[in-house]
Design a protein that fits this description.
Elements (H helix, E strand, L loop, with lengths): L14 E14 L5 E15 L2 E11 L6 E13 L4 E9 L9 E9 L15 E5 L3 E7 L2 E8 L2 E5 L11 E6 L5 E6 L13 E10 L9 E10 L5 E9 L2
GO molecular function, one term: fimbrial usher porin activity
Protein name: Fimbrial usher protein
GO biological process, one term: pilus assembly
């Protein structure tokens, strides 16, 4: 549900785009002397041959001073559908998956969760059970039916739920062919970084810090990994390696 296989993806057209925000402030003192400050921010990009170039830059000019350009991010990006990931090369920010975000220049490889089915992009519990006959499975949350499906006899697993809320347990009923009904409860609560059982997320970075105002920048390696173990546990860990 909510999934398009990679072989059906379209990389889009070759194009250049830009968006901008321009502002100017002018004030006057008691002698009617004016003071003007100008500012502009530009988000631009170029899509070409399955690569995307992204730029976030700004221009500022205080009154009677030379204007200055400042680049916030500038990087190349390309999707890697074989491993459901994206690679980025250039100046960007690390994710805040586990550690604080850091501006850097280098290369980054991370799991692109948008390449997964909608139901796997965030935590949803697996609903598992056993049907004694051809049965109708109904899953409700807050009294609202969010899933219903007929299953054959034997074990079943429902992994593509679209939940209606973030903190209510799931009521599951199994209606057998003879009309008998069995019900059970699946506990559900979600905290940041929780993943559906069997789903993993990772983020690997190699580069050099580029923190504004810091004289001595450092080379570093960062690795983050998260894995949904079951409906109750998500394992995660990370490390940052640097000389200082």
């Amino acid at each position: 549900r909510g999934y398009v296989p990679p072989e059906s993806w379209d990389r889009g057209i070759d194009a250049f785009y830009t968006s901008y925000n321009l502002s100017q402030y002018r004030s006057y003192d008691s002698n009617n002397n004016s003071n003007t400050a100008s500012y502009g921010r530009f988000n631009s990009g170029l899509n070409l041959f399955s690569w995307q170039l992204h730029s976030d830059a700004s221009y500022s000019k205080p009154d009677d001073m030379k204007g200055t350009w400042q680049s916030n991010t500038l990087y190349l990006e390309r999707g890697w559908s074989q491993i459901l990931s994206t690679v980025q090369i250039g100046e960007n920010y690390t994710s805040s998956l586990i550690f604080d975000s850091l501006r850097f220049s280098g290369i980054r490889l991370f799991r692109d969760m948008q390449m997964l089915p909608d139901s796997m992009q965030s935590f949803t519990p697996l609903v598992q059970g056993v049907a004694q006959s051809i049965a109708l499975i109904t899953v409700s949350q807050n009294g609202y039916i969010i899933y219903q499906k007929e299953v054959p006899p034997g074990p079943f697993t429902i992994a593509d739920l679209q939940l209606s809320g973030s903190g209510s347990d799931l009521d599951v009923s199994i209606k057998e062919a003879d009309g008998s009904v069995r019900s059970f409860l699946v506990p559900y609560s979600s905290v940041p970084n929780m993943l559906q059982p069997g789903v993993s997320n990772f983020d690997f970075i190699a580069g050099r810090s580029k923190i504004y105002g810091v004289k001595n920048q450092e080379d570093f390696l960062e690795a983050n990994y998260i894995y949904g173990l079951n409906n109750l546990l998500t394992l995660y860990g990370g490390t940052i390696l640097s000389d200082n």
